[in-house]
Amino acid sequence: MRIYSYLLSRLAKVTTCARHCAAVPCAAPSGLRHLTLETRTAATRSDVAADAAAALLALLPWPAAPRAPDVVRDHGMFPRSCSARPLLGYPAVQALTFLARCGARVQVGRWTTRLACSLSMNGCAPAAGDRGAVCVREARALPAASAPHDAVGQLRAAVDALRADAPPAAPSGIIRIEVPIRQRVDAIEWLHAQAALPRCFFSARAPLPDTPALPGSNGNGVASDHHRQQPVSVAGVGSAVFFRGTEPFSLADWRAIKRFLSSDCPLIRAYGAIRFDATSDASVEWEDYGSFYFIVPQVEFNEFEESSVLATTIAWDDSLSWTWQNAVNELQSTLQKISPCSVQVNTSSLQTTILSLNHAPTKASWDLAVTKALQMIKGRQREMVKVVLARCSRYITDTCIDPVELLACLKAEGQNAYQFCIQPPDAPAFVGNSMICDEVVVHPSKALRKLPRVQHLSAQLAARIRNEDDEFEILNTLHPSPAVCGLPTEEARQFIRDYEIFDRGMYAGPVGWFGGAESEFAVGIRSALLGKGHSTLVYAGAGIVEGTNPSFEWDELDLKASQFTKLLQYQEQYIRYQEAENMGTVI
Questions:
Q1: Strand 241-245 relative to strand 292-296: parallel, antiparallel, unpaired?
Q2: What is the DSSP letter of 470?
Q3: pLDDT band of 11, cuts 50, 70, 90
Q4: Can you give the pTM of this predicted structure?
Q5: What are the annotated GO cellular component locations (predicted)?
Q6: Using one digit for the tens of pLDDT, what is the confidence trace for 396-424?
Q7: Which of 167, 556, 558, 568 has the most CB atoms less than 10 A away?
Q8: Which CATH number fits domain 353-434+465-581: 3.30.70.260, 3.30.980.10, 3.60.120.10, 3.40.50.720?
């Protein structure tokens, strides 16, 4: 109550300044980012009205950054340049209505994009606490359709019927409604036709029929079965529930996700990623992702070997201020934006030209960092055995790169890779083509995994876990692996913090999904961050060990990034780039 007492006292001062403007907060917005704002008369000064709304919103404990207004501002909820433009996160319709009535001078361009996306609850909000599973977890199947167009119609009718019926008595739950489609449709082509955000895409690992299955359970009460039918690819838009935080991903966060999942509904999954280093500050381009970001899509397309499935998911929790009616209304809105069509993607090239390129670090700075690492590796104290240093290359192109088109190009080439795409509302898209490895149950032997331009030694272990919490412990223990950080882990991680001049964000972090029956994660390497403008960040890393040659490792970075750059065209001036970068400059 202390914060609300302060809120009311602060609000009294604000409304005095705004004279005829008054705002009344509703109950604490625990999981949902929404606020009820009422006005008695229009404000006489639009800038003061905007400041009033900004002050009010800043004082509330928003779930993404509940501690202080400065934290909210630092994490992108407010633009740094103007305090009179409140909330660039998931803005409430009521807040926009309030500002519109007051004639507040705010830039609404970015807001419009966000409002086109569905609002939903943050399942990792402080109010969620460490509680048990939601009351209802079920999947419902409708009759099979012959084409995606028919499936969309069935889902719209089903959701309309849900809205007309009395709401469930249960205060919380998650329901998946799916329509089988009697034809295989490419999930990327379906996603390419959709305009809604957030969105995600994940390919499946290649089937390995010779891999033996472990007897018993995976910890969730479900026998391990590597041979049962799994989607070839999954694409999703909207979020029935999202999970985002600014602190390192914790056991409590994992449990908040798992409470919406069930082994009885194995295709209800939370897709997303975790930062490489959640203790470091997020840069501007990564701030919308938080320290972790997962979504259960509102509308999901599953591509199978011989068929497809179109599904919707409804999630609600009264304790998070997100009711059944809220969820149904937002799902109806999202379904109206869903295109029943698929759009074929040109996978030969992206039809865009590189105008400029800037590496962070430059070649000269890279040489210095590698030299320092080698000194520590070869030093008397032997502080490190290995450290993995990375490079972030910013490409400016003449046209915007469509993340889905880039994803399709990578998928067409990367048969032995794991493709993914994650894009929160109004944020850059994180796209990757991470390699995968062979499955070996016991006594793993190294196998050579050949990719189009690089090759790796790989092996995979499989084992039974004792209980559900072990799933989190395994993920938490394996990350960061020596392949993306170094050895010993803490010494290597500290070296990266000290000498890397850019934010890795989700690059080299865990990327994948949690499910009720199983979960799957890869390391988010071979990845890029595609901005809304003409800027693309391509990430690549190299392991530094005793005997490393800095120039050879720089060339390896170019090789690893080439899966992205080969899809782009260069201007003639780029031919002179190699000479310029050796001097630490960029054309």
A1: antiparallel
A2: H
A3: very low
A4: 0.76
A5: plastid
A6: 999 899 999 999 998 888 667 889 999 99
A7: 568
A8: 3.60.120.10
